[in-house]
Amino acid sequence: MGQPVIHKVVLFFGHVTFFALLVLSFKHTEIRTTSGDSAYQVFKWVNDTGLSIEAHRYSAIFPELAVKCFKYFHADLKTLLMVASVTHVLVAYLVFLICLLGLKAPRSALAAALAAVLCTRLTFYGPVLEANYLLCYPFLFFAMLEQNGSASISRCKFASLVVAGALTLLAHPLGWLLLLYGILFLWAIRHISAKSAVLVSSGVVIGAGTVRLLFPPTAYEQAQYGNLLKAFSGHGLAGPWRSWDFLIGHTFHFTTNYLPALVLVSAVVIGYMVRKHWIAAAVIGGGVISFLVLELVTFRAGDAAIMMDRAFLPVATLIALPFIWLLWGLRGRWAIMGNSLLVLVLFIKLRDISFASREPLRQLKRIEQLLTELDQRSIKKAEVSEMELRSRSIQANWALPFGTLLITSMDGPEHSKTVRMINTQAMAMVRLDAFPVTPDLNGFMSSLNTSYFQLPKGPYEGLPSTPPAP
Question: What average pLDDT does the structure give for the chain?
């Protein structure tokens, strides 16, 4: 029996969503690959000969493999950066296609498309952030459970679930929570049996424990665990909650990034309550609220905007899965209304992601202007004060040396330049929780791949301060 026409229509919009993301990833290649963590990792993918696995994120290796493949055929740097940017979206689209065409699990496929954009804004411009993979990998796991239904879990199916679960567990330390949530939800709506839910949940818990034993938490993860423990000791919960200010500010005030997610989760909880699926409604509401509380407490002291955005990103998976399952069961005018809401949300969120490029583009223009001045002064390695960067409205960032090297080298290695900020106490603290020693380009000077990067030996030159505008 074929799918209803309305299901085919919304699945078409799933393809459209990923096509739009691919266009945006191609259009904004520079700002997606030359700032922050992305600049550092992409530089290493291009420069180093072997594979570079950050923080045991083995399942995040596919974009790097794509870059290495094109590098093997001597592609230029512009092409490599484009490949790095586009492949991150292609991974998510491939998950969508496997769910839809390979596993015949259309609900999980469409939920992956919705999750890709539902809470995404600034994080689209930080593609190497591991939380991005929690918007796609879990849906392979859910698709297998969707396909299996109430049947007993066979050995072959269990092995497939182990592989799918490993992709999530090796992408992010909180991935196991999302998998357990999905299992509990599918049991609550009676799609899988209690026996299957217990068996698969046990496997997820054992898998998560094994990953933690084999790959101890990084310095950054330990710092977050410390923040969580500190919050519940003494007066740890007193004072301002910058995480709450961020969440509310980007739901109602500064932007409406999370407003569509709030609308959908409210609709889905009410929908299951109307259908008298009380347990499912409790699982959805309790799961979303619990995850938000966890992130609100952990990031209570605040962080950079993109890192705060990353903290709340996985909520999209918690909302997308039950919303699409509820939508799939609607008929008549309710189906038209529900699917129209879905298409509207996809459009609004793609628009949000596109508009979020404005400030990163402004940052890129300011950096390019600085690099033009260096070219005019024939400076290849510049050292700039923090005050000077601020006067130019350039964000002080630990990855600035890597980003500026990538930007200039796209015109050929003979044009390579780099800029670093003069060390200050403030800069010394940037991202030290993520890296025991903040990465510095000096550590790569003796091993630069001269096919892509060429910098002279010798000291950095200071750039004279720009007089303030009248």
Answer: 90
Query: Is 427 a residue whose pLDDT tops 50?
Result: no
Residues 400 and 463 sit within 8 Å (Cβ to Cβ):
no
> 228 pLDDT exceeds 80?
no
- Please check whether residue 135 is in contact with residue 92, taking contact to mean a CB–CB distance below 8 angstroms: yes
Q: Does the structure show a pLDDT above 70 at 432?
A: no
Residue with tokens 């592609």: 75
Between CA 393 and CA 405 the distance in angstroms is: 19
The two structure tokens encoding residue 85: 């940017």
Region 328-346: mean pLDDT is: 94
Write the pLDDT tens digit of every residue in 28-51. Answer: 999 999 998 899 999 999 999 888
Q: Is 101 exposed, middle or buried (0-12, 13-18, 19+ CB in 10 A)?
A: exposed
Cα-Cα-Cα-Cα dihedral sign, residues 362, 366, 371, 376: positive
- Contact by Cβ (8 Å): 36, 126: yes
Which amino acid, residue 415?
Answer: H
Per-residue b/e over 1-40, b at no fewer than 16 CB within 10 Å? Answer: eeeeebbeebbebbeebbebbbebbeebbbbbbbbbbbbb
**What count of other Cβ atoms lies within 10 Å of the Cβ of residue 453?**
21
pTM confidence score: 0.91
Q: How confident is the model at residue 423 (pLDDT cuts 50, 70, 90)?
A: low
Return the SS3 of 382.
strand
Q: Which of 375, 379, 397, 388 is nearest to 305 (CA)?
A: 397
* Runs of H (alpha helix) within 126-258: 137-148, 155-169, 175-188, 194-214, 219-231, 242-248
Residue 229's contacts (CB-CB under 8 Å, 6 or more residues apart) are none
Report residue 60: phi and psi, to 5°: -100, 20
Contact predicate 241/296, CB 8 Å: yes
412: left (phi over 0), alpha (psi -120 to 50) or beta: left
E strand or H helix at 292: helix 278-298
pLDDT in tens, 140-191: 999 999 999 888 899 999 999 999 999 999 998 899 999 999 999 999 999 9
Print burial letters for 277-311: b (CB count within 10 Å at least 16), e (below 16): beebbebbbebbeebbeebbbbbbeebeebbbbbb
Whole-angstrom distance, CA of residue 344 vs CA of residue 147: 28
3-state secondary structure of 384: strand
Q: Is the pLDDT of residue 359 over 90?
A: yes
